[in-house]
Amino acid sequence: MSMINREDGFTLIEMLLTILIFAIVGLTLASVFMNGAFGLQLSSQKTTI
Question: Is the pLDDT of residue 10 over 80?
């Protein structure tokens, strides 16, 4: 019983950590990608909005 409880606890912690990491990385990549896309659009395509 103790092994199952410990495994469940570790899996829950790992799931939470992975979710947080993916969320942080996703937000950072999204912000950087959006900033880069807007920068490229403003610099290369000034006519198209």
Answer: no
